[in-house]
Amino acid sequence: MILREKHNLTHQLTHDLGMEIVKGRYSVGSGLPSEAELCSIYSVSRSATREAVKMLSAKGLITSRPKQGIRVMPEHNWNLFDTDVLSWILSSKPSIQLLHEFTQMRVAIEPQACALAALQANADQLRNIENALERMRDADNGLDDPLEADIAFHTAILEASCNRFFYQLTNFIATALRVSIRYTNKIKGVPGADVIKHQHILDTIKSRDSDAAYKASKEILDEAIELIESQFIERTTPVPDIQLS
């Protein structure tokens, strides 16, 4: 019980400090309170504080050295593939530029994942994609969550690619999609994704046509890129009224 409580306190402190850092409360190069001060501020033990500092250091947000204290690292040092870091950023008013860069990464990965799925997916993996598409249809009728159904479709394809590196990106992709899909759907003025276009992706995968699967996926992503670019005012424009739940 004591170990579990310490674990929970450590993760809560890691979350709280991580959120404060990405929100800009502590500027790059500035010092955070000392470990002793953090213990007092957050009413946690020294060991829990030390573990939280280690976790944030591993995520690239801070550096902690003897006689130099705890300092915030530049954003380019942050591990954006860490789902905690990504969640903190997306929860603290992400910029359109960030969503644009994320969608660019999807363009580099998901069409290829679709092509690989067309060549390599087994029956169970195809069934998972079909089930996700059925959830999307249900969502159109108010019987499922449109966001979660859409995410399930895209992550099922990553799994069906049979590429272990793509599969490792599943949680990262799902985390960012929870904001980016909401945003692009809001621009289009629709509650959910275009089921017909997603059906076309599934059809090309099931027909084992890797070129067509690649093109079908890229078409949807190119549309998302265009929607995001249409909203550009400046590189740091915040995403309006879209928060990670």
Automatic annotation (TrEMBL):
Any one GO molecular function term? DNA binding
Domain of life, source organism: Bacteria
Q: Which UniProt keywords apply?
A: DNA-binding, Transcription, Transcription regulation
The UniProt record lists the keyword Transmembrane helix: no
Which Pfam families does the entry link to? Answer: FCD (PF07729), GntR (PF00392)
The residues forming a coiled coil are: none
Keyword DNA-binding set for record = yes
Q: Where is the HTH gntR-type domain?
A: 7-75
Q: Kindly give the CDD domains that the UniProt entry links to this protein.
A: WHTH_GntR
Q: What is this protein called?
A: FadR family transcriptional regulator
Q: Which organism is it from?
A: Shewanella hanedai
